[in-house]
Amino acid sequence: MLTDHGQTNAERRRLFGRVTTFLLRFVPTPTPSLDEDRFRLSLITAAVACLFTAIAVLYALLIWLFERPPPIYYGLALEAFVTATSALLLLRRGFLRAAPWVLLVGGTFAVLVPFLREGPSSQAACNFTIVIVMAALLVGWRGVLALGIPSVVLVLGTGILVQLGLLHPTPPTTGSHGVFALMQMSSMIVMLVIFDRVRLRILQAHRQLEAKLLQAQRLEAVGRLAGGIAHDFNNLLTVILANVSLLSRTDVDLREHPEVDDIRQAAERAAQLTRQLLAFSRRQKLEPRVFDLVALLREEEGILRRLIPETIRMEVDGPEGPLLVHADPGQLSQVLVNLATNARDAMPDGGTLQISLSRATEIEGSGPPADATGPEGRALRSGAYACLRVRDSGTGMDPTTIERAFDPFFTTKEAGAGTGLGLAIVHGIVTQSGGAVRVTSQPGSGTQFSIYFPETLILPPVDAPRGVPAAGAPELPRAMLLVEDDGAVRSATARMLRSLGHRVIECAHPAEARAIWRSSAGEIDVVVSDVILPGVTGPRLVAELLAAHPVRVLFISGYLDDALKDPLLERAAFLAKPFSPRDLEVKLAAVLAAPVLAE
Known about the structure:
The chain is built from 18 helices and 14 strands.
């Protein structure tokens, strides 16, 4: 797709140039039914229609000043003006096939009338050249033949009739200053120049978009690789963190074994890295809700100030009232930390970091490929946005660096000083959350990152204390069906569940879960299932179980691919790997306080 409604005027001007950007106002956005050739011809039709709208007015003015012809010529100028504006209106309404033919028919009529009046030996006979050139540009060879052959026959026929004395033309009697000849040459020159410029601009835009598509495909491949690696690491980290946490509940005095705490801290840092990889690859399960972005910024301000050295002055500004958005607040906290860290590194000698929140009606600045769409491919349209801006007074970026700023593993730092994932993670989180990220920067003038989210007017619900079951919630159940294909993860999870007082039935394969469910479905209180299972996804397996008997469900996973789109994941509770016994206990409390799920 060459253009879309999500692009700003600045982006279109940079991609197509000023003239073509102006013409895009009259052409609908390309769709599968509007291929590239039709799109190009529609742009040329708009160009020719705009040209003759101006020429009709200019021609009427010049002949009034210099030639003072009969009134019929002023009428022809008016007819040309109406025809050109009608073609523009048809284009605007989407009648792409009708618009060029209206232009050609109206142009032919404007040429035919003076030709019949003045005769084949006059200058008017040359005016058919304009219509034939228009046909070549607007319709192609079929249009040239459709108008060219009748024009040749007409000129020859009227010439014979004049020779036989059957036709008596009336050439102009007033002194001519060649106004029409001037308009003829000017219009043909401008038509051909505009045609060539539009063709070149579309070709350049096509090449740029192909390059962006190739880059997006590379990012997708890297994202899938990162997601797969994160999945394996999360399984390993689940085992490590679970056993370390369970060890702390034994009689062993961990103060005599500080290496256990080192293991826990290293595992938690590794878990944070895998969460960043999943955010970059957009494979993590978001938990979006309506919240106040202003309140989140105030909560994160203290953390951000601890990240920023004293040589950098941090200024935080936001509106007085709430600014409500629908997103995952935990992920947006990660966005804030990454942007603040990036700004800190851009000001090694100190400076000013400004973080502000405001409302915006238009998305401005440069962005990474395909980041103007939400999680379901919907373009962000003009409207009310909550805009988070992070601006630093650091070294800034040149255009080449801006183009690659969101590429994974791209960094301008020295080797070993950074992973190059910070901005790629920001892009992944914001895009998956339905927002857009933009950057404006100049070398030596600092950098500003702008995060846009559609503002919502829905008030956030009042949250109950985390992990506390609602009044009247049932007692903790004792029977749980655990479905997990990884043996180490299954064993560690089962030990965590048993440490919480539950009876656990372990299943390594979906077939085992089906067999157990057929024999003892009524005895099982909660199904704890991995999302990615051999041969079937967890949500599909649970859907089969729910068809026979309702039950409470908790999904666990460290990586979500196509299963992320399953509607059952939106209804059931979810716990991301790696998790600790405390995380599992809190999530189970929420599951037990909720009603059972049915098919």
